[in-house]
Design brief:
heterotrimer; A alpha/beta; B alpha+beta; C alpha/beta; A: alpha/beta; three-stranded antiparallel beta sheet; 12 helices; globular; C: seven-stranded mixed beta sheet
Chain lengths: 390, 125, 379
C-alpha cells in the first residue's frame, strides 16, 4: 500500500475538467455574499437592487470586452451545458420554418450531442461529421454536409478530450455559404485561445467560468445581435427574454472577473504551458508504446492526451491515483465505455480505453511534470510486466 | 485529502492486492498453464501452477485487466496453493465475490478465473 | 439601510457563506471526475443533498438540483408536458412568472392551459380545481405561498383531487420553504420547487423535489448529472450554500417565523388604524413575514421610490416585474380594483429586521403621505 510512503505526492493535472477558483475571483465573489447590501436581487428597483444589477452589468462588459462584442450580446447562463442547450435547441426550434437539419461532429461535447439527440426526438435530422485521425474536421466535409434545410452547425472550438483546435475561420466561411447558423462550443478554448468575435463569423458561442479559474455553475452564451432564439427557461423576462431566472450576482461577477484576469496574462501563460506540455510528452513517450491522441500541432497549450499500449486503462488510472487526470471525459465518470472521441479518431478499444488526459494550468510546475512522467514510466512498466505473456 | 484517486470504489483489499501482488509472474518449475480471456473486458489471465504429488505447490499469474481482475488473479493463486489437483477441474471461485469484493458489474471476473484454472487442469500432460 | 424585501431575495447567512467558501477556495474537483478531489466534492455534494432533503422530509435521491427556482419550475412544467405530448394543464391565476412563462410557452406549443381563479382573500378553492379536472388534465401547478401577498394555499387538499384524477401535481414552494413547516409528502404533490436565495442561501441554485413517480424530459441535456434530469457541472459552492441554508432553516424555522410574524403584526396593527389602508390577503392564512398593502391615493411605485431614498428597501410586488408598470396580476386575480392594486407595496421581513425597522418604515410612510401631493388621503 502506498499510503504513508513519503515518496508520493499529489499532483492535479485535470484543469480541463475544472480549475480552482482564482483567489482574486473569490475575493470578487465574496463581496456579494455578505450581509451588507450587495446581496440584493439584480431585478429589484431599490438602490440595493440597482447596485447588484450594476455588478452583473460590469461582468457583462468584462466578457464582452475580451470577446470584442457589444455587452448586450452576452446572455448569462448556469454554465456551458446550459449555454450549449440554449444555443442548439433555441436556434433549431426558432428556425424550424427554414428546415430541420443540423450538422455537428461525432467528437462534440456531451452537452452538444445530447441537445442534438433531444432535437432528433423532435423530428430534426442530425449529421455527425467525422474528424480525420488527428481530430481535424475538414471544411470540405462540412461543405458536403450542408444542405438547403440546414438550420444550424455546432462545432467545438477545441476538443475537451484531445485539445485539438479546429480551423474555425475556414469552417465559418463554409457555414456562411449556407443559410445555417454557426454555434461554437468554446468552453474548453475560452480565454486560452484569442477569440475575436468581431472578426470570427459565428452566431453563437458558449462559455463556462470554471474552465478558467471562475466558479462552477456560471456561464454565458454569445448571441449575435438580432438573432432570435427559443428560450429554454421561460418567465420573468430576464436576459432579454432569452433566459429567465434570478441573476446570481456573485457567480456572474466571478465569471466576468475570471474572463478579464485570464485574458490579461494569456500569452505568457500559454507559452509556459506549451513548454510544460512538451516536456511531459517527451517524458511519457519514453515509456514506449505511448501514442499521442490528436493533431501534434493544432491543439491547446494545456492538454495532452495519450493512449498506452499493453495496459488496461482502469488499472493504469488506479496505479496513478496520486495524479488527478482524466480517462475519457470527466463528465462521463460513471460510464467506463472507451472514449467515443478517441473511437472517432480511429483508436481501437484497447487504446481508446487506455487513454489518459493530462491537462495543465496555472499551478502546474516543471516539478509536477517530472513527477508525473517518472510515476507514469514506473507504473506502465509494472503493469506490462504483470501482464507478461498473458 | 489523501490521494487523488477513486480509492473508495475499490476498497482496501483490492487496492492491496493490486498494488503488491505476491504471486505475480510464473513460479519455478511450472507444469500446468491455463489461460482465459474476456473479449468484452479486453482482459486476459494466464495461470501458472507447479503441481507435485497431486498438490498445487506454487501458483503465479500474469494478467492484463482492470484492478479487480489483477486482484482476483492474485487471490486465486493464494487460494490454489495447497489444493488437490483434482479440485482444479471443478474449481469454484465464487469466494472472490465477497472476498474482494467484486462489484455487480464485474461478477463475471469470477468466471474468467475459473476458466483459467479449469484450462490449466485440462492442459496437463 | 433597512432591507424589507426578503421575498425578492435574502442576504446570505454567515453559516451559508462559510459553507460556500471551501468550494471556492480548495474543494475544486469536478464532482463527475473519479479521482479523490472529485470524490471529496461529491461527498460534500451528497451531504448538501441530504440537508436539502431533510428540510422537506424526503430522501436525498428525491432532490434534483437546478440553477434556481425558475429552472425548477420550467423543468416541472415542460418536463411533464413534453413527456405527455398533449393535454390540459391547470395553473393558478396567481403564479409567479416562472410558472406563467413556461405555461404560456406550452400553450403556444399546443397544450391547453387553463387558469384556476382565486377568491378575494387570495385563496384557490380546492373545489375550483376539482371542477376543472378531467381525464385530459396532465398537470396542475398551484403555488404553496404567494410571493406578493404571502397567502398560503391548501395544496394538500388540491393534491388529493389532482391525484384522484390521475394528473401530476406540482407546487412552487420557493417562498414557503424555511418560513413555514414544510413536509413534501404532506403536500401530496409529486413535484415541488425550492429556491435557495429566499432562505438565506445563494442565488443561482434551487431544486425540484420529486416523489420518483414522474418521468421528466430534461430541459438541459448532456453529461448525465442529477440522474440524467439536469445536465451541467454542479454549481458546487451554490449547492453547498443551499445545503447549509436548508440546515439552518430546518433548525430555526419556528423561531424565525415567530420573529418575523411579530414584526409583521406590529406593522399591520399600526397600518390598520390609519385611514385608506388595504392589506391584501389578510383574512387568509399567510406567510409570517409578508405584508402587502396599499394606501388609497398613493401609487405603489412612488411609495417604493420614496422609501428607497430614505434607505428603506421594499417592493411593489415581484422583483421579476420591477420594470413593469402593470398592476399586479395577483391582486387583479383577487378582484382588487386596478386603482387600488396600483398602490401595492410589499414588505417582507427577515431574520435581521427589528422593531426599530418597523417603526422607521411607519415614520417614513407618514412622512411620504405628508409630502406626496397626489391626493393622499388622511395620512
Amino acid at each position: 500500500m502506498k499510503a504513508g510512503n513519503n515518496n508520493f505526492r499529489l499532483v492535479y493535472m485535470d484543469y480541463a475538467a475544472t480549475t480552482p477558483v482564482d483567489p482574486r475571483v473569490v475575493e470578487t465573489m465574496v463581496a456579494y455574499l455578505g450581509p451588507d447590501g450587495l446581496f440584493a436581487n439584480p431585478s429589484s428597483s431599490h438602490v440595493q437592487g440597482r447596485a447588484a444589477r450594476e455588478a452583473v452589468e460590469t461582468a457583462r462588459v468584462e466578457i464582452a470586452t475580451v470577446l470584442n462584442v457589444a455587452p448586450e450580446t452576452i446572455v448569462f447562463t448556469s454554465g456551458a451545458t446550459e449555454a450549449d442547450n440554449l444555443a442548439i435547441k433555441g436556434a433549431a426550434r426558432a428556425r424550424i420554418k427554414h428546415g430541420r437539419h443540423i450538422v455537428t461532429e461525432k467528437t462534440a461535447h456531451k452537452a452538444v450531442l445530447d441537445a442534438c439527440k433531444a432535437l432528433e426526438r423532435e423530428g430534426f435530422e442530425v449529421t455527425y461529421l467525422v474528424p480525420d485521425r488527428e481530430g481535424i474536421i475538414s471544411p470540405d466535409s462540412l461543405a458536403d454536409a450542408l444542405r438547403d434545410d440546414t438550420v444550424l452547425v455546432s462545432l467545438l472550438h477545441a476538443n475537451n478530450e484531445t485539445g485539438v483546435v479546429q480551423d474555425v475561420e475556414s469552417l465559418a466561411r463554409e457555414v456562411r455559404k449556407s443559410k445555417a447558423l454557426f454555434h461554437l462550443d468554446a468552453a474548453q478554448s475560452a480565454v486560452k485561445l484569442p477569440l475575436d468575435l468581431a472578426v470570427l463569423d459565428v452566431d453563437l458561442a458558449a462559455f463556462s467560468a470554471h474552465k478558467f479559474y471562475g466558479p462552477k455553475g456560471a456561464g454565458a452564451l454569445y448571441v449575435r445581435k438580432g438573432l432570435r432564439l427559443e428560450p429554454l427557461l421561460h418567465g420573468g423576462g430576464h436576459e432579454r427574454g432569452l433566459r429567465a431566472g434570478t441573476l446570481a450576482t456573485h457567480q456572474l461577477a466571478g465569471l466576468g472577473r475570471a474572463f478579464a484576469l485570464a485574458a490579461a496574462d494569456r500569452n505568457e501563460e500559454m507559452a509556459r504551458l506549451t513548454g510544460l506540455r512538451e516536456r511531459l510528452w517527451q517524458g511519457l513517450s519514453a515509456a514506449g508504446g505511448v501514442f499521442l491522441n490528436g493533431h501534434p500541432a493544432r491543439r491547446l497549450a494545456n492538454i495532452l492526451n495519450v493512449s498506452v499500449g499493453g495496459v488496461d486503462g482502469e488499472a493504469l488510472q488506479l496505479a496513478l491515483r496520486d495524479i488527478a487526470c482524466s480517462a475519457g471525459a470527466a463528465c462521463n465518470a460513471a460510464n467506463r465505455e472507451p472514449s467515443y472521441v478517441l473511437r472517432a479518431l480511429g483508436r481501437d478499444d484497447q487504446l481508446a480505453g487506455a487513454s489518459l488526459r493530462f491537462s495543465l494550468g496555472r499551478w502546474s510546475t516543471a516539478e509536477d511534470v517530472d513527477y508525473v512522467m517518472q510515476r507514469f514510466g514506473r507504473e506502465v512498466a509494472r503493469l506490462r510486466e504483470l501482464a507478461g505473456a498473458a | 485529502m489523501e490521494y487523488l484517486a477513486d480509492t473508495a470504489a475499490y476498497g482496501r483489499r483490492v487496492m492491496e492486492l493490486f498494488d503488491s501482488p505476491a504471486h505475480a509472474g510464473p513460479p519455478d518449475g511450472v507444469n500446468l498453464v491455463g489461460e482465459a480471456e474476456s473479449r468484452t473486458r479486453l482482459s486476459r489471465i494466464r495461470l501458472h501452477l507447479r503441481v507435485s504429488d497431486d498438490v498445487v505447490e506454487a501458483a503465479g499469474f500474469e494478467a492484463l485487466g482492470c484492478p479487480h481482475t489483477i486482484a482476483a488473479a492474485e487471490l486465486a493463486c493464494e487460494d490454489l496453493e495447497g489444493r488437490k489437483r483434482d479440485e482444479l477441474a471443478g474449481y469454484d471461485a465464487r469466494f472472490l465475490e465477497a472476498a474482494l469484493p467484486l462489484p455487480a458489474e464485474k461478477l463475471d471476473i469470477r468466471i474468467l478465473v475459473e476458466d483459467a484454472v479449469r484450462n490449466a487442469a485440462a492442459g496437463v500432460a | 439601510m433597512i432591507y424589507l424585501d426578503h421575498n425578492a431575495t435574502s442576504p446570505i447567512a454567515p453559516e451559508v457563506r462559510a459553507a460556500m467558501l471551501p468550494a471556492l477556495e480548495s474543494l475544486f474537483g469536478n464532482p463527475s471526475s473519479i479521482h479523490e478531489a472529485g470524490r471529496l466534492a461529491q461527498n460534500a455534494l451528497d451531504e448538501a443533498r441530504r440537508q436539502v432533503a431533510a428540510l422537506v422530509n424526503v430522501h436525498a435521491r428525491q432532490v434534483i438540483f437546478t440553477g434556481g427556482g425558475t429552472e425548477a419550475n420550467n423543468l416541472a412544467l415542460k418536463g411533464v408536458a413534453q413527456r405527455e405530448g398533449k393535454g390540459r394543464i391547470l395553473v393558478s391565476s396567481i403564479e409567479h412568472s416562472s410558472i406563467k412563462g413556461p405555461a404560456r410557452d406550452l400553450a403556444a406549443a399546443g397544450f391547453t392551459v387553463e387558469e384556476i381563479p382565486v377568491n378575494p382573500k387570495g385563496r384557490i378553492l380546492p373545489g375550483a380545481v376539482k371542477a376543472r379536472l378531467g381525464a385530459d388534465v396532465i398537470l396542475v401547478s398551484v403555488m404553496l405561498a404567494n410571493n406578493e401577498t404571502g397567502v398560503l394555499q391548501d395544496v394538500a387538499e388540491i393534491s388529493r383531487y389532482v391525484r384522484e384524477a390521475g394528473a401530476v401535481m406540482h407546487t412552487d414552494a420557493a417562498q414557503a420553504a424555511g418560513r413555514i413547516p414544510l413536509d413534501f409528502r404532506a403536500t401530496g404533490a409529486q413535484l415541488m420547487t425550492l429556491s435557495a436565495h429566499k432562505m438565506y442561501g445563494p442565488k443561482g441554485v434551487g431544486a425540484l423535489i420529486t416523489d420518483g413517480s414522474v418521468d421528466l424530459v430534461p430541459q438541459i441535456s448532456g453529461g448525465g448529472q442529477e440522474a440524467d434530469r439536469r445536465a451541467g457541472t454542479e454549481n458546487l459552492a451554490g449547492i453547498l450554500g443551499f445545503g447549509a441554508a436548508a440546515a439552518l432553516a430546518n433548525a430555526n424555522q419556528p423561531q424565525r417565523a415567530g420573529h418575523v410574524c411579530a414584526l409583521r403584526d406590529r406593522l399591520e396593527e399600526s397600518l390598520v388604524i390609519r385611514p385608506g389602508i388595504t392589506i391584501f390577503g389578510r383574512e387568509a392564512e399567510r406567510l409570517p413575514n409578508t405584508c402587502q398593502f396599499a394606501i388609497a391615493g398613493m401609487d405603489g411605485e412612488t411609495v417604493q421610490m420614496g422609501l428607497d431614498r430614505q434607505g428603506i428597501a421594499v417592493s411593489t410586488g415581484s422583483a421579476c416585474h420591477s420594470k413593469s408598470t402593470e398592476p399586479s396580476h395577483v391582486l387583479l386575480a383577487m378582484g382588487v380594483e386596478p386603482s387600488i392594486a396600483h398602490g401595492a407595496v410589499r414588505v417582507s421581513f427577515g431574520a435581521s429586521n427589528t422593531q426599530a425597522d418597523v417603526d422607521a418604515l411607519l415614520a417614513a410612510l407618514d412622512g411620504l403621505s405628508r409630502t406626496l401631493p397626489t391626493g393622499a388621503v388622511g395620512w
